[in-house]
Design brief:
Radius of gyration: 25 Å
Shape: globular
CATH architecture of the largest domain: 3-Layer(aba) Sandwich
Oligomer: single chain
Order of helices and strands: EEEHEEHEHHHHEHEHEEHHHEHEEEHEEH
Distance between the termini: 32 Å
CATH superfamily of the largest domain: P-loop containing nucleotide triphosphate hydrolases
Strand content: 15-25%
Bound molecules: adenosine-5'-triphosphate
Number of helices: 14
Largest sheet: 6 strands, mixed
Strand order of the largest sheet: 6-7-8-3-9-10
Helix content: 25-40%
Length: 378
């Protein structure tokens, strides 16, 4: 557990970057620090590895005051990842990844083996090892940055906007891989981002900070969406927070409709025989491929003829994906698949809404609401 107690950091008399911060980042969990530009996120993060020293207050890691630990020793147990990976441009990927083990005096073969192992772990197979950072895409550089931080297997990882310099699709993929990795590694992670969606997706806990370096609220994403402590947090977590909170509640087993289907490659006659409505679902080996309007079929069904705009939800997955599947489907019948991606059936939006009505909201924690904020809640 990383604990901040009444931590202040001021740069000169008037510039208070972090103001009496009390914060706990539990062991083995991801704690996201989020807030507007200049609210003190990076300063908070850098105080954990003593790149910045607090003006007052105490920071402990597993009850050990970090002020009592020499900075180099402290940093051996803390991986650090920054935007763009922060790689050394004149070193190969393998050399970059081996930086900390080399500082720790590991022998060459051990460094090489471990570096290859962590590169594999972040999805960069062998032939990337001898490249230079400039020969990598932004997403690959970020992966190397994560591999480098993991090389000496530190229990704590500090990540400062590690995925914000890549395009949204790559970012999404990096986030998914990061969550999978954390599932295996159970590191204690403090993750800075200005992107509330990223914080909500990655954080077990999310700490929302205000300009002036004060903590506005810290809670699970689900709790923050249901009970923002004041207007600032409510605005920050977003106007569509009611809808977004559905991401954190799983769907029940819906009474699914059995959907008539036709195989990809089917003839006009087969398609027309299969349908009883305007839209027909096309499958391949039981897996949904897209919808088609039977009236428009002039030849055997090919992938290019399919409407692919609708989303697909996994059975028992978040209510948000089930509702989205129904809302985005051209037939208004949302596709639900099993864990192997095979069609389980379809569901209508009103069935999902009924399930939402039957779901309990997250209970408010009475200790959580400061009296001066009680009226600000919505
Ligand atoms: N070395 C410094 N000297 C003076 N002021 C600083 C220094 N570092 C940070 N600050 C100030 O402290 C405040 C907090 O900065 P910090 O970088 O921690 O914010 P942030 O939330 O990470 O911002 P961003 O999202 O824009 O990166 C800002 O007002 C900043 O100008």
């Amino acid at each position: 557990m990383i604990r901040f107690e009444q931590v202040v950091k001021s740069f000169g008399d008037k510039n208070i970057a972090v103001d009496h911060l009390d914060l706990e980042a539990p062991t083995g969990q991801i704690t996201c620090l989020v807030g507007p530009s200049g609210c003190g996120k990076t300063t908070t993060l850098r105080m954990i590895n003593r790149m910045i020293e607090p003006t007052s207050g105490t920071i402990t890691i597993d009850d050990r005051n970090i002020a009592d630990v020499a900075a180099p020793e402290l940093r051996r147990g803390i991986g650090y990842v920054i935007q763009h990976g922060g790689l050394f441009p004149h070193q190969t990927v393998l050399e970059n990844v081996g930086t900390v083990p080399k500082l720790l005096g590991w022998d060459k073969q051990k460094i090489r083996n471990r570096s290859r192992e962590v590169l594999e772990l972040v999805g960069l197979p062998g032939d990337f090892a001898d490249r230079y950072p400039s020969q990598l895409s932004g997403g690959q550089q970020q992966r190397v940055g994560v591999a480098r931080a993991l090389a000496a297997d530190p229990p704590v990882m500090l990540m400062d906007e590690p995925f914000s310099a890549v395009d949204p699709m790559v970012r999404d993929q990096l986030q998914d891989e990061f969550l999978r990795l954390q599932d295996e590694l159970d590191k204690t992670i403090v993750f800075v981002t200005h992107d509330i969606d990223e914080a909500m997706k990655l954080g077990d806990n999310v700490a929302v900070m205000r300009v002036g370096g004060k903590l506005a609220q810290m809670a699970s994403p689900e709790y923050l969406l249901a009970h923002p402590i004041d207007d600032f947090v409510a605005d920050f977590v977003g106007r569509d927070r009611g809808y977004r909170s559905l991401s954190f509640q799983n769907s029940p087993r819906f009474p699914l409709m059995s959907e008539p289907t036709v195989e990809l490659g089917a003839t006009v006659e087969q398609a027309r025989a299969a349908t009883n409505g305007r839209w027909l679902l096309v499958v391949e080996d039981g897996k949904p491929q897209g919808w088609i309007e039977p009236a428009r079929i002039q030849s055997a069904i090919e992938p290019s003829m399919l409407h692919r705009g609708g989303t697909v939800a996994r059975s028992g997955g978040p209510l948000r994906t089930s509702l989205d599947a129904a809302l985005s489907s051209p037939s208004r019948r949302g596709i639900i698949v099993d864990d192997d991606g095979r069609l389980a059936g379809t569901v209508r939006a009103y069935e999902v809404l009924r399930a939402i009505e039957e779901t309990d909201r997250v209970e408010v924690d009475p200790d959580d609401v400061a009296p001066e904020h009680a009226n600000g809640r919505t």
